[in-house]
């Protein structure tokens, strides 16, 4: 059945799939120097932000992505004090990062200031940590920012970007990973949103290979549900500068204090369990 214009649909030609949400109304549309941003009111998912026709964030299900893109890596690092979020302009990841008392400094490097200004208007609940004294909101290209970063200065880099096309393409390349490696402390880590383990496995496998070729000692994949994104099943990839087991900082009271809706210690451990076909592709 074809859907009429009262639905937002994100068709993905390459995978022959589409995701739809029943709409209320379109509230905003603008073409920035980087991308086209639209805001809709949906019938059941709250507000929806799309960029270049791709779903980015909804009121109802963003907690899955934001909690998993921050807490899994933060609790896998022995002592994350200096954290950089590349992209993430809706500020939801930054908010989760700043729930960790051990984080002393968190810098968000978003190329498009309009994403953040619209998030402040339509997703104010994601922007509640923007005035935290530990937070810096920098607007500019994450690729250039990382090139200029002080060597050996960062504990954790979180790449919360759009898909690997347009301004985000370079964030999935070897040159960028080399700059990240240089900017990380010896025990530093990077975590990057890495698309769907069902639809994009070759991309994930290539990403892990590129990270290792760039010089990361080891890579790990974790997965989580995300209804808004193609296939509804998404992943994050962790790359570690040094070899060794990931830390597991899952002290019950510290995890409880995160006040998360999805993330907990069992979810943390379970997220690294990979289906056979995925493990085989990454071996
Ligand atoms: N989680 C979402 C997803 O997977 O679709 C992405 C959310 S977040 C809104 C993605 C952000 O990455 C966008 O706001 C975009 O402007 C930003 N971005 C893309 N390329 C970038 C770059 N080179 N440097 C900094 N930010 C970038």
TrEMBL record:
Binding site for S-methyl-5'-thioadenosine: 35, 110, 141-142, 167
Pathway: Amine and polyamine biosynthesis; spermidine biosynthesis; spermidine from putrescine: step 1/1
Top enzyme class: transferase
Cellular component GO terms held in the UniProt record: cytosol
Annotated catalytic residues: 160 (proton acceptor)
Ranges for domain PABS: 5-241
Domain of life: Bacteria
Sections of the chain in a coiled coil: none
The keyword Ion transport is assigned to this record: no
InterPro entries referenced in this protein's UniProt entry, alphabetically: PABS, PABS_CS, SAM-dependent_MTases_sf, Spermi_synthase, Spermidine_synt_N, Spermidine_synt_N_sf
Alphabetized UniProt keyword annotations: Polyamine biosynthesis, Spermidine biosynthesis, Transferase
GO biological process: spermidine biosynthetic process
Transferase is among the record's keywords: yes
Molecular-function GO terms, alphabetical: spermidine synthase activity
Positions that bind spermidine: 66, 90, 160-163
EC numbers: 2.5.1.16
Reactions it catalyzes: S-adenosyl 3-(methylsulfanyl)propylamine + putrescine = S-methyl-5'-thioadenosine + spermidine + H(+)
HAMAP family per record: Spermidine_synth (MF_00198)
Subunit structure: Homodimer or homotetramer.
Primary role: Catalyzes the irreversible transfer of a propylamine group from the amino donor S-adenosylmethioninamine (decarboxy-AdoMet) to putrescine (1,4-diaminobutane) to yield spermidine.
Family recorded in the similarity comment: Belongs to the spermidine/spermine synthase family.
Designated name of the protein: Polyamine aminopropyltransferase
UniProt source species: Hydrocarboniphaga daqingensis
